[in-house]
Automatic annotation (TrEMBL), chains A, B:
This is Transcriptional regulator. It comes from Streptomyces aurantiogriseus. PROSITE patterns: HTH_ARSR_2 (PS50987). Residues 30-122 form the HTH arsR-type domain. Pfam families: HTH_5. The keyword Nucleotidyltransferase does not apply. One of its GO terms (molecular function) is DNA-binding transcription factor activity. SMART domains: HTH_ARSR.
Amino acid sequence: MSNIEALPLLEPEAPESAVPCCPPLTERPLTADEAEKTARMFKALGDPVRLRLFSLVASHEGGEACVCDISDVGVSQPTVSHHLKKLKEAGLLTSERRGTWVYYRVEPSVVAAMGQMLGTLG
Amino acid sequence: MSNIEALPLLEPEAPESAVPCCPPLTERPLTADEAEKTARMFKALGDPVRLRLFSLVASHEGGEACVCDISDVGVSQPTVSHHLKKLKEAGLLTSERRGTWVYYRVEPSVVAAMGQMLGTLG
DNA sequence: CACTTGCTTCGACAAACGTCAACATAGACA
DNA sequence: TGTCTATGTTGACGTTTGTCGAAGCAAGTG
């Protein structure tokens, strides 16, 4: 029997799919589980303050920024910390303490995955 | 000093302004205004039910789906209607009534804009 | 050690959100 | 006209979220 014919057309994944996420939104309806996971990432960017924080880190020189660099987003410092934590929990940022300061940087694979879910729509 | 300068910035603009909003998130920190606009779009996809609805419309044949096609997302019909409205207000979907049914389709420009803000990160 | 600075966690509160049942509206059809 | 079906809107509800001040760690300095 030729078991060759029904090969699942899932080739070795693209290098940046370190994230077990989802196909482009146009490919097929998401399952409840996929939607749950993915929505968490989009929700993380669904707040103006968090979006500014993320953009600030993403555009900062060296790809990272310490919390001390961000004090002008219009909210108190505990609130900044709270939002950074949310972004971390969503997998969009990572943090590292170096001496006195804590540095945040973006997690490219996760962001790329989000982009791919949207990008193929155009 | 003219008192004209302080125009109330609340124009009666269309709720779905399909404008390419902002530069890639890596280019420079977003302004408060840009973040406000953009966050509205991401927030729209930040709910599992909405994400499923959106994916359902986006992946449906012909690029559009009527509400009758979507009855298995696990919430009541009024809730579906509510979420579709949210997606419309965010500019991600448009709707059109044809006879008995209402058809929804994705707004490609807005989705593409979101993808561009993320896509250049990889 | 005490003191200062950078950041996180805690406790509380108002506002926003998701959900549903009930009601309302729009069109098709008899 | 009236009735039926397909969607949207309203009002109410419990839950989640964003925000702050106060307190708690962590690390450097005198």
